[in-house]
Amino acid sequence: xxxxxxxxxxxxxxxxxxxxxxxxAGQEEQFTPEYRALRTSVxxxxxxxxxxxxxxxxxxxFDVTISVGVGGAHPSLTEHFVRYxxxxxxxxxxxxxxxxxxxxxxxxxxxxxxxxSGTLRALEEPTHSAAWEASKPITVQP
Length: 142
Description:
Layout: H1 3-24, H2 33-36, E1 48-51, E2 55-57, E3 62-68, E4 82-89, E5 92-98, E6 107-112, E7 118-126, E8 132-141
Parallel strand pairs: 2-8
Antiparallel strand pairs: 1-3, 3-6, 4-5, 4-7, 7-8
């Protein structure tokens, strides 16, 4: 790489960084509070449903199925769908899947293993609101 190429590359990166920074600055103000606050109330179409055993053995694999909508399936339409479903153990994210409208149903199964008891938390984010959360305690036995 010549000196001029390095200088041009550095200038281009600086310009992109400046443009990106100014383009995204203040975007957080565009989001109303209902898009920022995590929702934990129960909504038949948005609250995740966690299917997992109440007790598991330490280090053994088990399935956790998360479907969106405790009262019926959430739609998967171009104009309204679930962007992602994430699984947490307490505050640590352990799995996440991104969904595509129309082609994917808002239901996933993760196969996980745990070392200690805690709380499984499912998060799902639809296109028209903030993320919704549900939780389920799980006991890990030796």
